[in-house]
Amino acid sequence: MSTEPDLERFSWLLRLGDSALVLAQRLGEWTAHGPIVEEDLALTNVALDLLGQARLWLGYAGEVEGAGRDADRLAYFREQREYRNLLLVERPNGDYADTTARQFLFDVWHLYLLQALGASRDERVAAIASKAAREAAYHVRRSGEWVVRLGDGTDFSRARMQAALDDAWPYTGELFAPDALDDAMAERGLGCDLRALHAPWSAHVSAVVDAATLTRPADGWMHTGGKTGRHSEALGYLLAEMQSVARSVPAQRW
Amino acid sequence: MVAPRPALAEVWKWLAEVPDPEIPVLSVLDLGIVREVSWALEDGQPMLRVALTPTYSGCPAVRAIERDVVRLLHERGVANVVLEVRLAPAWTTDWLTAAGREKLRAYGISVPGPRPAEPGAAIDLGAFQDERAACPRCGSATVELLSRFGSTACKALYRCTACREPFDHFKAH
Fold first, then answer.
1. What structural domains and CATH numbers belong to chain B?
2. What is the ipTM of this complex?
3. Using CA atoms, how far apart are residues A221 and A169, in angstroms rounded to an integer?
């Protein structure tokens, strides 16, 4: 018996895997460049969690596609336009406040997303999400603490943290804006309603922003496109670095 | 000819010899990651199935552990081993055995407390507060969190404010 591969599910799994992978790669860029050794370790450990999650999502995506592509094949041999990650996570590291703002806004969303996917009718999705949610819950605490430390710190750190939050904010709209694919997956009971994540995300973000004595940016025009492969220039450089070894020696094994 | 089929109790004893490569004082059994060991038949030959549940999604020790388990079983004459990576239910530090906790403490690593509320419960902002850790050297409970991540993904870095020694704490997960 041959069944058609569920390409809708495949494309949707790529979104989950690619956001985790691209953010892991971004955080990996901090390796040996962290402002203090503890943060260097923390960022790379968060990156490791995300990389592990990306491997699980992309591995499953490859099985669903049924074309013989494993997680590595999907990570190293797709072009920028084939990547389905959120625009927020491909943003360059900037200064430590920029990295912190990006991480915090993502972490809170990620935790609520994973919690919701823990109830997916796809047992594999539910298992990966439930496992990853434990890790995300810890990430949220760390990144939130840094928003507070920097925001409620010196005048200088406060100004930098506020500017970083303002800069990252227009990339948060995409997190809660479902397209036809997201809606279809939610209807099938495999995905979840992204709109429903906004209220808890918003409450948590506001609480931390208040504790940090910062001002929550106003919602304005929001960037979109990452989930359908329309990316910023920054992603191309990231992929070039990440993929260069695999593409230089494509048949090499460790 | 049918290959020998060592008793499962014997197999469990063997697995107690496989250490965690990053915290070698702990065995895979102390960690609680071996979920099931059973015999099955494949083409009339016995096949040993071992189900492992990884700790953290990205823990680099997992692959080494899988390799070590298979190697050990081969050495003990079990030719046909199939590993199953079982994600659900997700691993938790509640699965660390009492013996494992004792070994951690003796090794100088503070043991995890009760695991945090299941994801899904309301998030405690809990900034700058963490689980209660006790200094593994002097036993003092007056400690401070230095960093949420220590030498591996599963540990955080603390300092004892009584004896001033820094120490690793195995995070409740």
1. 8-85 (3.30.300.130), 101-123+130-170 (no CATH)
2. 0.85
3. 10
